[in-house]
Design goal:
globular, 40% helix, Aspartate Aminotransferase, domain 1, alpha/beta, Aspartate Aminotransferase, domain 2, 4-stranded mixed sheet
Amino acid sequence: MDANSSGTNATVGSLVLGFSNLRETRNERPMVVSGGDGVFIVDENGKRYIEANSSFYCAALGYSNERLVAAAEKQMREMPFYVSGLHRTVPVAMELAERLAELAPVKDAHVAFGSSGSEANDFLIKFIRYRNVFLGEPQKRKIISRLGGYHGGTNMTASLGGSKSLHDSFALNMDDHIFISQPNYPQNAEEGESQDEFVNRLVLELEEAIISADPGTVAAFIAEPICFAAGFYLPPSTYFTRVQEVLKRHGVLFIDDEVITGFCRTGNMFGAETFELEPDCVTTAKGMSAAFFPISSLIMSGDIYNDLERHCDEHGFFAHGSTYSAHPVGAAVALEVLNIIEDTNMLEHVRARSQTFAQRMNSFRQHPLVEDVRTCGLSGAIQLRSEQRGGGATAALTGPSKLLAAASVDRGVLIRMNGPNAIFCPPLIISDDEIEEMFQRFEAALGDVEAEKAA
């Protein structure tokens, strides 16, 4: 059997794996997952791991929820697929849109669908530009985002985050992008800078960026309530209030990217509630279907939607569509996620488990390898003492971070290393006992790193 054939010694063969070293995947077999149960996954060799990051922060209800399986099967049998477009749709798509519109932190909400968070953000920016053409402002197309963030993998959304190295390596079109700093305090603070002074500087940076670009050309600002890709730093308490004041003063829309933070992750249905945001638009994915089926949403205010409708009147139809948007099976699964959240009092469960989670996270503050601990709801970061600063979703791991990533796999707990930050985002269904087991395994992995560094 050659190296690219099926079998436990085979490499990936023809499969291209994202966020991986492509040559390594050709030479070394990756972890191959064959099953899952609750918060655990099982590899092809039968080893069990606690998935401490819900597989890219999305498997909110774990890996064996029978209600979601049943919802998908039922919809598959009733109507497995039909496009929502051409003045046609399916009942579950309409019902899901109504449910999301009721829940969303947006006034007079209207909902469109995509297949991923990348699509949701990409489509929404397209819609905003369509609106601005109708308003006689086609030049109002620039988007402000924060370096080190992550809003997707399309040409448009990859340009909204990451680093200059990422932009250059993919030759992304950066003409309409404006970048400001992440509100990572104290990491991004100047020497001796207080938190208030830090916020003042970032708010001034935002205002100067808008003025420099010409406010008449700036369409929107996009941000996540917490940026996981930039190391999971909680924004200072006054940051978003001050930012929103600047945006309103200059007529710049606020897009709240809730792809990760939506659907109970922060202890509220949306991160917007946790951080008192008043967005014009919200995008969701990941926990929306608990990753049991690809689906996403872009939720816009009535003011924005009404302009789309009036512009559409001029053209006769809205020239946008996507084959799998509002897929019936995805819509049925997402509806069942909302039912489960209600039926199981998921928000109360998350709030209770968040206390256990935070207590256990904070127990690492005195560890010799740990510099800082940050938590919000059922997610958080343990920052290692390291010469490495920054990081991000595309940063290569070095030093203790690389050692810890490998040691955690050996100990059976799958974390996400982001520079010096070990990110935790377990399935929302995790129990107190499983939280304890997760951190016992992580603690053992830290011990392994200590021993290796001492050797």
